[in-house]
């Protein structure tokens, strides 16, 4: 649905402050650039590690860089990565493939093998979108191993309305994968023979698949260079917060050598608790790690945080300065939390103008709901301010936003501070 900003309709105001409302970082009507208060050092360092200088890929990296990009839920990781993608995906920089895991797959049932499936299929989709003529014998071999069984071809047609029989017969592996992409989420949402076969094939010999995938990447680099396109390939994977925690451990800790074996530069967005878990693992030295910092509440940041709301909803209609200031203070500089407080306030007011009293009730309701999810050990850690470690219970607090991480410091979420004092 298209919205006019700032929204003046009370139902639209509710919708555009929902957590799942997506914005385009290139849309100046709604995006707020926070570089002034957040800084750009993390982005400039990432570019440097990727050999970007003067907005060009000067020379390909000596080794294939794997970057862990972390931050609190709602800190703006997705939007900032999308902005980075818009810049980096260019013929003088990288052939960059942006993958939002949650959009493509059923994350609750995500398995380690699925990472390699989505890398291959999204790469082919990006090649198609870029109108690049490309084929590879290694890609054909992979397609034969995954999707050549008669029972799978029949299942794809009968259950998912994908007819790949003619493409398989002609050896047109590129278009087989493109057709599979069109129903990918449906395939992953079911216990299909297709998915089971692909997973089992990968699990049986993952290194063999990676070698094939690396050969596909080598063939693609030759094609890109001959067409005066990008010199190298970059994968950016975002939206993985809902992947089961144990899967993170397998991918980035226990079996991290598989990711390290992929011959491409890669950026992985992970939740903050996984970031510390990866950092504490012996293999962590292989990964470059960056954290998107929380925004401290200062005289400099307040106008920008206000703009996040006033670009979405009409302030004269829905919220006065005092109430908005209160919402920002209670947000702790977390964009997700600021939106939740304002959205909850709109629901309480039934779309009428938010008063200070309504904003306070919204904050109290959200704080109470947050504090009730913790056990006595969590509460003790917070009351005694023992949340500067990477212990499991502390990671719980960071992931749930009970403890907020700023540059060099951690603080209790303002929503629950009063409850802890009581």
Describe this structure in words.
- This protein has 422 residues and is of the alpha/beta class.
- It folds into 2 domains: 1-32 and 295-422, no CATH class; 40-138 and 189-291, Rossmann fold.
- The chain has 24 helices and 9 strands.
- It has helices at residues 10-16, 35-38, 41-49, 77-88, 101-104, 112-129, 137-147, 150-160, 165-170, 173-181, 184-188, 193-204, 206-226, 245-254, 256-260, 272-279, 302-310, 315-318, 321-331, 335-349, 356-371, 376-383, 392-399, 414-421, and strands at 52-53, 56-57, 66-71, 94-100, 232-238, 265-271, 288-291, 403-406, 409-412.
- The chain has a 5-stranded parallel β-sheet, with helices on both faces. The protein has a two-stranded antiparallel ribbon with strand order 1-2.
- A hairpin with a 2-residue loop joins β8 and β9 (409-412).
- The longest helix is centred in the middle third of the chain and has 21 residues, at 206-226.
- It is globular and about 70 Å long.
- The mean pLDDT is 90.
């Amino acid at each position: 649905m298209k919205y006019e900003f700032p929204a003046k309709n009370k139902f639209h105001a509710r919708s555009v402050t929902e957590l799942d409302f997506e914005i385009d970082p290139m849309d100046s009507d709604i995006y707020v650039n926070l570089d002034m208060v957040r800084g750009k050092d993390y982005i400039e360092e990432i570019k440097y590690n990727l050999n970007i200088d003067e907005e060009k890929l000067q020379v390909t990296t000596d080794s294939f860089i794997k970057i862990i990009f972390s931050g609190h839920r709602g800190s703006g990781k997705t939007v900032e990565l999308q902005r980075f993608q818009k810049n980096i995906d260019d013929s003088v920089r990288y052939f960059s493939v942006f993958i939002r895991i949650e959009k493509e797959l059923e994350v609750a049932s995500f398995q380690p093998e699925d990472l390699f499936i989505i890398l291959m299929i999204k790469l082919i989709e990006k090649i198609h979108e870029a109108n690049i003529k490309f084929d590879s014998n290694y890609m054909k071999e992979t397609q034969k191993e995954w999707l050549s069984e008669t029972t799978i071809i029949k299942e794809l047609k009968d259950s998912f309305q994908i007819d790949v029989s003619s493409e398989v017969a002609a050896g047109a592996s590129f278009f087989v994968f493109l057709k599979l992409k069109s129903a990918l989420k449906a395939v992953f949402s079911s216990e299909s023979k297709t998915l089971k076969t692909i997973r089992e094939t990968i699990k049986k010999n993952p290194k063999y698949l990676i070698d094939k995938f690396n050969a596909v990447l080598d063939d693609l680099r030759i094609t890109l260079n001959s067409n005066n396109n990008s010199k190298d390939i970059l994968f950016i994977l975002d939206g993985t917060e809902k992947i089961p925690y144990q899967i993170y451990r397998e991918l980035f800790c226990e079996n991290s050598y598989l990711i390290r074996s992929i011959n491409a530069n890669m950026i992985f967005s992970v939740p903050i608790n996984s970031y510390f878990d990866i950092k504490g693992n012996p293999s962590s030295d292989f990964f470059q790690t960056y954290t998107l910092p929380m925004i401290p509440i200062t005289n400099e940041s307040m106008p920008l945080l206000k703009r996040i709301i006033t670009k979405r909803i009409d302030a004269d209609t829905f919220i006065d300065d005092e109430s908005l200031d209160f919402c920002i203070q209670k947000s702790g500089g977390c964009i997700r939390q600021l939106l939740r407080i304002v959205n909850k306030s709109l629901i309480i007011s039934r779309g009428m103008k938010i008063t200070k009293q309504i904003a306070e009730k919204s904050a109290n309701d959200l704080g109470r709901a947050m504090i009730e999810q913790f056990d006595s050990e969590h509460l003790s850690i917070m009351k005694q301010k023992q949340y500067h470690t990477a212990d499991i219970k502390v990671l719980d607090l960071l992931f749930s936003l009970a403890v907020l991480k700023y540059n060099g410091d951690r603080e209790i979420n303002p929503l629950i501070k009063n409850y802890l004092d009581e």
